[in-house]
Amino acid sequence: MTDSPARTPGRRPGGPDTRGDILRAARESFAGKGFAGTSLRAVAREAGVDAALVHHYFESKDELFIESMALPVDPRQVAAVILGGPREELGRRIITTFLGVWESAEGQQRMKAVLRSVVTSDEVARMMREGITKMIMVPVAAVLDVPDARLRVSLVATQLLGLALTRYLVDLDPVATTPVPDLIDRIAPVIQHYLTA
Q1: Per-residue confidence of the chain (197 residues) as pLDDT tens digits?
Q2: At the N or C end, where does the chain have fewer CB atoms within 10 A?
Q3: Number of domains within the chain
Q4: Which domain holds residue 46?
Q5: What distance in Å separates the CA atoms of residue 109 and residue 27, rounded to the nearest whole number?
Q6: Is residue 40 domain-shared with residue 85, that is, in the same domain?
Q7: Reduced to 3 states, what is the DSSP secondary structure of residue 49?
């Protein structure tokens, strides 16, 4: 009879879904602490693995963030939905799509991570700004066919970011508890005014 090999104490080695466990722990950390407050060591601890294993899968915190922030929707598909209808209903489509992403449980967790990281990291802000500009803002501005289209779309972004901060991060009432259909009815005309007035 042979002795079974002794298990060494410490973190568990990689398993079939170790990468997935690390990504889940990273998403929770980025959502809860933002980019600056998250460390690879803390993510490893939360995932129950050795920190070296996190480095095995992800070269840096930036790479881990890019992978873990996998947005719940493809920004190009968001642009297609926004642009897929009459111009006079752009405001309603934009706010409906935006709230649809934020109101799902997984979408909210992922978007919180992105938003917190955008406001705490210049690099992440630049990355998001460039991606969102290319995939959403430029196509929307193109259909407006007015000289100040980029400014108009940027003003819409201020409305959406303000709503996200107020409703989902600051949790400020009554915005935080107002039913989604009521928010859509109130905000859609404001966005439409930015775009077409």
Answers
A1: 444 444 344 444 555 689 999 999 998 888 778 788 889 999 999 999 999 999 999 988 888 887 777 677 778 888 999 999 999 999 999 999 999 999 988 888 888 888 888 888 887 787 788 878 888 999 999 999 899 999 999 999 999 999 999 999 999 999 999 999 999 999 999 999 999 98
A2: N
A3: 2
A4: 18-68
A5: 8
A6: no
A7: strand
